Structure to design on (1151 residues):
């Protein structure tokens, strides 16, 4: 029976893909919603505050309240706006952000954790993620208002320049991996026994900075710098359309983190994947769920409100249940890749929030200076050095290189 | 208080010198319940240990220099609580200001404040008042210009740039017109407001009802 | 004034404010832009005009005192102190030392509170989100001292003409010294976050440069003037209260840019701590009121008194006609005069710099509009 | 720029020290927030909050002697004292209105009161749903504000 189902799914690739897409989409929506809560909480802790505390225990249900509020708000289209484009723009942004996940390997492909492993994956990512800028430009322009226009102008300039830097950083990885496929890049890191971040540290830093800039996050959040342009390109948006922009921004954050993890931090690979005596690390998921359960239990004991206590007990129970489930060896093996992938992405997302909690904002011209005068030259230099080193490495004797140079 | 003459704190207003205070320029505000009739009596010099209760005549080398350069223009040099003040004729205001700003005139380079006081019963109802400060001498000087209704005062924006907004505020609040000001329009009140609120005949409960009704859609702001 | 650069380029006119996150209240700045470069600014103020000077003419001297707290509402204590001193000067009242030192301690605490609030909001304008929460936390400690002393946190009405209404509460000295000890490491933390941060330096250095000569011509006072290298502080040059009896320094900048003004204010907080420490040591038991009668009735005269408020020279020009009501009270607001410099300081800069310059001028619209 | 400064810039040390500071602030003991309705903030003894007319604790009669000094002292003229003469020609308080909506809690009325009858208390929850509700009469002033204590 199961055999037949699997056979059927294999024969009808589209059905399997559709199921995967739906799962990824739902999970991403959940992650994005809770990313907002996480951002508010982490920022609050960095700023000696507590963050949301009212909706649910520790504000755990805050994302639901936020979502409902945005859904119920009036959808205002300003007078004089180009209505069609105004309504279309946020949709473009969010579609571009979600589409890219089609080629991200969340786990080993042989266990089915990638929607589509295409051989030009990286090109696809660069191409589609750049489309998101159309949403921002069109949204800013069609609002027929000064602040959104300025925000859109800044955004387009910023994205174009940092897209170049990010592309240059990625080329270093391509040279190492010898492939454009995301899956191949991870497998190459596995084969080499070393993550790309150690082979390409400069490229990694450039990519990291460019990623922050591309997602319009502090210190590069000029397009929506609230103290200068009120809210930048989405000043005139309200209600659900604003929520779409908001989700697009946070999805983009998840996206660039996922790309960075895949390209530089070994994707789904466990840390030290090739060191076998560290295999006990496979049980980290169990420890994580157990730890979370214990923390929640402790919190629920301290919580005075009966309803919240019950809710927290339920959450803790879920954590313990999950801990037990992932301790089952086949499940454990199956969950490994995606667990490490998500964990690494979380580290990146935390870093995004951390920057926001620490740094002032660059000025527009300084941002351009950093992009064009620092990042791009360094990126180019990195490519040249990488290329030379790889060429040297691949030749059995240096003489061949010498002949090439002095011919 | 430390720039005061360090007199022993013996006299206070608890024992005011019986009913003698004169209104500064000899007029009482109409709205004041406690307004007193002007009593320009002879000035008995205040007894030395007590803090002065009224302005005394002022003399200094700077004043002599000023009077030499601008005869007729300088009058009523008074000093109170170590604060000298002089009245300058409107016509020679710019000259006096330029001189005071120059090195020989004491280099009063900072115009601290410019304001006005309204004495509606006087013939020239406004005192336009300039507070100058000299970094070199660490000294303040108060200039007064007497202006009547509808008369124009030369603007000192050319001498001290600060005066720009300060003069606009005086115009806004008192309706004193300035000559040669680059951008004389209201600053705190809306451009189409009628009336000048700090005049004494502008009651505290009064407002520009027409403006309020037209712009705020309410009957009255009170 | 720079001209628009592109052929046939139309200037973009943008209204910044009165509802804008970075204009510190209800300031409205009309910006003329070429792209993002500022060709000129025009400040439109008065949205918060309450006619304080008119109110003064219709209140007694005592009754007017609570209103001055509401001008610069983040530095109510210094406002009240300036007003009380002006009337005291008019009457020739000398304060007992305990009252003087108490006033100084509270005024310096208020200066720190005002600078803290400035630092937080200025950093927030430039995009650093976190300092504002740290500075508000420290400011809270100051407000707690105010609340314990006089029963109000913001609009304190702490002083009365002739002295203090409230004597110090038990443990005030300890609270003040404890706060000083608490604050200094926190200032180091702000500096750690901002002073050497390359983004902060990029955003503030060479922005809004004001030479000493320009600063005097524009009449700016306070930290803005000192940031331009003019070593002038009313507490030193024309001391009031007992400022001539305590030791402190006047920090100055060299370049007159936004960064220097930031450093000046940071240093001023440290100097204020010094003043507070010395003043606390000299607090001795004694009377808290000078010789004033029950009814405040100054002689018919006029007097100008100015103090070094956190934002600059705060002057009161009080004209008395010998009655219990002031004939005229003119307030010389530091924010109003400092704001005038915005146009000259911001020409040729980018929109983002306008925000930094408005922040560095440290204006409070309650005081600008009165 | 010296070598040290150059190295600082290349290795982003100026940025790292800020990151270190914000990271260290995540310790739970650094949290400063007060969970207001759940935790009541401590209010200073001298706090100037909602006004109250004090009664003599023994007899229950008002301490107010209807001298009208508070009304005269008030900058906003928001106190109206009503009185009548009793048979022995003494003033007796009949009504007392206090418009809290206009009050700026300056404390001048409290200072003026010769018998400690009018007092600004430590109550700070004086919000009301109507403007009329902010005008307090004698009964309300003697009872003090009774705010709704919200809970979950």
């Amino acid at each position: 029976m199961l055999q037949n189902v699997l056979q059927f799914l294999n024969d009808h690739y589209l059905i399997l893909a559709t199921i995967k897409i739906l799962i990824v989409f739902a999970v991403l929506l959940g992650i994005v919603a809770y990313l907002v809560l996480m951002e508010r909480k982490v920022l609050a802790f960095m700023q000696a505050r507590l963050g949301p505390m009212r909706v649910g225990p520790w504000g755990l249900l805050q994302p639901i309240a936020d979502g409902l509020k945005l859904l119920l708000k009036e959808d205002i289209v300003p007078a004089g706006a180009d209505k069609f484009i105004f309504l279309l723009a946020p949709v473009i942004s969010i579609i571009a952000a979600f589409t890219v996940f089609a080629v991200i390997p969340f786990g080993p492909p042989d266990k089915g954790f990638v929607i589509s492993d295409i051989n030009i994956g990286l090109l696809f990512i660069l191409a589609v993620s750049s489309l998101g800028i159309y949403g921002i430009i069109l949204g800013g322009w069609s609002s027929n208002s000064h602040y959104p226009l300025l925000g859109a102008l800044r955004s387009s300039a910023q994205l174009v320049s940092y897209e170049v830097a990010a592309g240059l950083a990625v080329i270093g990885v391509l040279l190492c991996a010898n492939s454009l496929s995301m899956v191949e890049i991870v497998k190459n890191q596995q084969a080499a026994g070393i993550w790309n971040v150690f082979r390409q540290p400069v490229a990694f830093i450039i990519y990291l900075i460019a990623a922050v800039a591309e997602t319009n996050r502090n210190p590069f959040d000029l397009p929506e710098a609230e103290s200068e342009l009120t809210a930048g390109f989405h000043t005139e948006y309200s209600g659900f359309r604003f929520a779409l922009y908001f989700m697009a921004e946070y999805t983009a954050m998840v996206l660039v983190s996922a790309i960075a993890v895949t390209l530089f931090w070994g994707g789904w690979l466990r840390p030290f994947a090739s060191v076998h005596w560290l295999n006990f690390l496979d049980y980290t998921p169990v420890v994580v769920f157990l730890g979370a359960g214990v923390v929640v239990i402790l919190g629920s004991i301290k919580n005075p409100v009966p309803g919240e206590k019950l809710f927290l007990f339920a959450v803790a129970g879920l954590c313990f249940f999950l801990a037990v489930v992932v301790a089952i060896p086949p499940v454990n093996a199956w969950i490994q890749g995606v667990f490490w992938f998500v964990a690494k992405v979380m580290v990146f997302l935390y870093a995004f929030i951390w920057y926001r909690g620490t740094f002032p904002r660059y000025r527009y011209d300084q941002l351009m200076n950093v992009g064009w005068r620092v990042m791009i030259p360094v990126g180019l230099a990195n490519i040249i050095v990488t290329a030379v080193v790889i060429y040297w490495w691949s030749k059995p004797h240096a003489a061949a290189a010498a002949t090439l140079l002095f011919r | 208080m430390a720039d005061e003459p360090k007199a022993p704190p013996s006299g206070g207003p608890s024992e005011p010198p019986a009913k003698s205070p004169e209104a500064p320029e000899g007029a009482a505000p109409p709205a004041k319940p406690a307004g007193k009739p002007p009593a320009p009596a002879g000035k008995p010099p205040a007894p030395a240990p007590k803090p002065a209760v009224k302005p005394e005549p002022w003399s200094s080398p700077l004043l002599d220099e000023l009077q030499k350069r601008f005869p007729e223009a300088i009058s009523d040099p008074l000093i109170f609580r170590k604060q000298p003040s002089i009245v300058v004729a409107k016509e020679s205001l710019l000259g006096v200001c330029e001189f005071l700003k120059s090195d020989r005139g004491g280099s009063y380079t900072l115009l601290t404040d410019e304001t006005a006081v309204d004495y509606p019963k006087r013939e020239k109802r406004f005192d336009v008042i300039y507070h100058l400060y000299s970094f070199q001498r660490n000294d303040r000087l108060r200039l007064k210009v007497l202006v009547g209704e509808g008369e124009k005062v030369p603007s000192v924006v050319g001498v001290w740039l600060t005066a720009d907004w300060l003069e606009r505020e005086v115009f806004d609040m008192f309706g004193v017109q300035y000559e040669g000001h680059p951008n004389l329009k209201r600053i705190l009140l809306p451009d189409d407001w009628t009336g000048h609120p700090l005049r004494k005949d502008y009651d505290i409960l009064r407002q520009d009802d027409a403006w309020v009704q037209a712009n705020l859609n309410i009957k009255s702001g009170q | 004034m720079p001209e628009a650069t592109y052929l046939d380029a139309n200037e973009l006119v943008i209204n910044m404010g009165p509802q804008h996150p970075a204009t510190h209240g209800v300031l409205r700045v009309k910006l003329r832009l070429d792209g993002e470069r500022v060709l000129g600014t025009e400040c439109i103020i008065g949205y918060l005009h309450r006619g304080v000077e008119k109110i003064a003419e219709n209140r007694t001297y005592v009754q007017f005192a609570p209103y001055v707290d509401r001008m610069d509402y983040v530095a109510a204590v210094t406002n009240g102190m300036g007003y009380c001193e002006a009337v005291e000067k008019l009457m020739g009242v000398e304060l007992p030392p305990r009252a003087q030192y108490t006033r100084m301690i509270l005024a310096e605490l208020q200066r720190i509170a005002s600078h803290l609030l400035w630092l937080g909001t200025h950093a927030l304008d430039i995009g650093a989100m976190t300092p504002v929460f740290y500075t508000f936390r420290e400011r809270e400690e100051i407000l707690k001292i105010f609340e314990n002393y006089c029963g109000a946190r913001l609009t304190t009405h702490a002083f009365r003409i002739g002295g203090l209404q409230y004597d110090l509460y038990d443990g005030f000295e300890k609270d003040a010294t404890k706060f000083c000890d608490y604050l200094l490491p926190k200032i180091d933390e702000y500096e750690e976050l901002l002073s050497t941060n390359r983004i902060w330096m990029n955003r503030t250095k060479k922005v809004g440069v004001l030479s000493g000569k320009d600063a005097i011509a524009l009449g700016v006072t306070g930290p803005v003037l000192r940031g331009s290298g003019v070593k002038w502080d009313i507490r030193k040059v024309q001391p009031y209260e007992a400022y001539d009896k305590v030791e402190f320094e006047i920090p100055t900048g060299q370049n007159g840019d936004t960064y220097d003004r930031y450093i000046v204010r940071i240093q001023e907080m440290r100097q204020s701590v010094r003043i507070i420490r010395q003043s606390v040591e000299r607090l001795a038991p004694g009377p808290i009121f000078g010789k004033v009668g029950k009814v405040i009735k100054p002689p018919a005269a006029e007097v100008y008194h100015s103090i070094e408020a956190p934002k600059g020279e705060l002057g009161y020009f009080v004209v008395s006609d010998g009655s219990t009501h002031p004939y005229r009270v003119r307030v010389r607001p530091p924010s109003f005069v400092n704001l005038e410099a915005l146009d000259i300081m911001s020409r040729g800069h980018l929109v983002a710099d306008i925000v930094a310059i408005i922040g560095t001028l440290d204006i409070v619209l309650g005081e600008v509009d009165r | 720029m010296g070598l040290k400064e150059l190295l600082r810039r290349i290795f982003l040390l100026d940025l790292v020290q800020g990151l270190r500071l914000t990271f260290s602030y995540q310790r739970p003991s650094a949290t400063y927030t007060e969970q207001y309705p759940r935790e009541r903030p401590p209010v200073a003894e001298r706090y100037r909050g909602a006004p109250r007319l004090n009664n003599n604790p023994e007899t229950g009669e008002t301490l107010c002697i209807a001298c009208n000094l508070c009304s005269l002292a008030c900058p906003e003229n928001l106190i109206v004292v009503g009185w009548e003469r009793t048979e022995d020609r003494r003033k007796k308080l009949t009504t007392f209105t206090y418009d809290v909506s206009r009050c700026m809690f300056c404390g001048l009325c409290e200072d003026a009161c010769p018998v400690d009858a009018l007092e600004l208390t430590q109550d700070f929850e004086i919000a009301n749903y109507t403007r009329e509700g902010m005008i307090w009469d004698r009964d309300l002033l003697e009872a003090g504000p009774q705010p709704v204590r919200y809970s979950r």
Chain D is about 25% helix and 15% strand. Chain D has two domains: 1-31, 51-143. The domain at 51-143 of chain D is CATH 3.30.70.3270 (Alpha-Beta Plaits).
